[in-house]
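Annotators were shown the component list below and the corresponding predicted structure, then asked to write short factual statements about the assembly.
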Amino acid sequence: MGSGLIIKDFLIFSPVIILTVWGLASLLLDLTILAGQESSARNRSLGLFTLLGLVGSLILCQYLAFDVIGPAPGKDARIFFGTLNGGLLYSQFASLVLLFAILVCCLSMVWSFTTHWGEYYAMLVWSALSMIVLVASEDLLTLFLSLETMTICLYLMTAMEKTKRRSAEAGLKYFVYGSVSSALFLFGLSLVYGQTGSTSIESIGRILSTTEKPGLSGNVAGGVAVLLIMVGFGFKISAVPFHQWAPDAYEGAPAPVAAWLASGSKLASLVAMVKVMGGALGSWAVTTSPTSPGWVGLLALISAATMTYGNFTALSQTNLKRLLAYSSISHAGYMLVGVIAVGISERREEAAAALFFYLVIYGLTTISGFALAAWIDRDRGSENVDDLNGLGRRHPYIGVAVCVLMLSMIGIPPTAGFFGKLYMFMEALNVGGADRVTMIGLVALGLFNSVVSAFYYIRILKAIFLRDSDKGDLRSMGPEIALPLFVGSVLTIFFGFRPATLLEDMEHISMSGLTFAQKADPDKSPNAAAVITPVILPIKPIANQQPAVSTPAQAKPAGN
Amino acid sequence: MSQQIPLTWFLYFAAASFAIGLMGVLMRRNAIGVLMAIEIMLNAANINFIAFWRYGDVPQGEGPLTGVMMALFVITIAAAEVAVGVGLILLCYRRWRVADVDEFDTLSG
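Structure shown to annotators:
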């Protein structure tokens, strides 16, 4: 650990810094130059302004990835005293988040659903940058901070459509569920901190795997911590039973915000979850004794419940946004299978890469799905599946694009969704040992659920291609809707034919950016000389405590 | 100095206030009450952080103030959360004329 700040760190994080300023600038522009203009005019100018910032940061990220960070930055690419990742993991996921943000920004320009455009675009930019920091965070402090910044921005964005009652309600519901779950999450983090004395993900993983008794057996505080942390992440990725907010928030939020909730925030939270569960708490993953199942067993239950509940509830939905919300819940269930595989597989990096592949494709297809919802929301004021009737006959290109998206969500070749499921489930089946049966069961359930999901995705296709419209035609979609819709479907087809390009990229990321605790051999790690300090167990008797005066940290006051 | 308050007292206190906060969230119907209960939960976690920092050893390579820093940032986050929460409650209050979380039930299914 260096003694001072390094200028290069700031250079690497310059896209994030630029985005911070960009958000402030859009607030200022709205109040000064654009003051007094009509809502739709302000929407257009601020949207273009934000788009400029996002595209600029995306280009800067790619430039940094090639020029400053370099192609092979080595295993330890951490910057800012080890609190953030400054390697490929950061630059590539930052580019992905920015790509999603660009598509969402396009969708936001579709129609004027609010009057507070300065605030809206500032929130969009700030939530994007906190997603980037969340993906890059290597420390529980930065992780929690960015997670909260992200969700606080998202609460506000959800409630932005002030003309509609449901938007305010969705915002409040999202807020209540969200802040309770982050309080639970924080309490879990505090227990982990108590057990290890550290907030760095890497050293938590190292300390937990080198204690005399690794694993959760007999460690009540550790069990509670795992449970609480899982509640926190389960909420963020809308896993059953913490999903209640998701359908309401997705339906009440304006379509672009719902797309952002479903793609960007899910991507960032899942990457953070892989880091915390696989990296920091990796040694608590597996079963060590009959009394302590490890978190894999619990996560398997959550995953099974999530995919089954999401799919079966989606069958009866008539609102397109609500249907997509349940579809996103069921996809969270599939992705949890990937998280479990990362936790216990021998090939953890490959398993993580397969999960990331799935995440990217899922994010792209979901944004495109919500682009469709934004279109009918603009022209019809409602977003029922019936509003899509007859679309494919009038607009064959759009029909084909939507068809590709739905096939990808079901997981039918030659779309990328198929390869996402294939890679992830193959990695899950590679797991050996005691949990192999669990994984086989989960994969079987996942395949069964894919079949169930076909029913509601095909209902959308049926409305588009087979039914006649009883209402008038929609207005032409314009570039704002066309771009997200076609970018999603073209990339889905492209990666369907060339899945290796994306998978190799994701493997590079996970090889260079993820540190997994459990497999690290203490004799070979550079910190082998580090003395592992005694772990404080809150369940220990009082007599075991050392007086604070004798601790090495003399910076503390001697107490009073 | 031998009469120091043991760590477990702090942990029991934090766990108790955390439980009180959680019960408040589940049982209070007034949205402002729920907000207060959430604050209690966040502060319980803060007490844990401070207590663990004060009584624990610092592993090698760690800064000496980790737990305190965490608590400081959480206080900031809690303030931001209250601001946003009160804003959202006001937004709902203007439409429903109540601040009761059970009344907001337009969305379901």
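Statements collected:
1. The first strand of chain A starts at residue 78 and ends at 79.
2. The radius of gyration of chain A is 23 Å.
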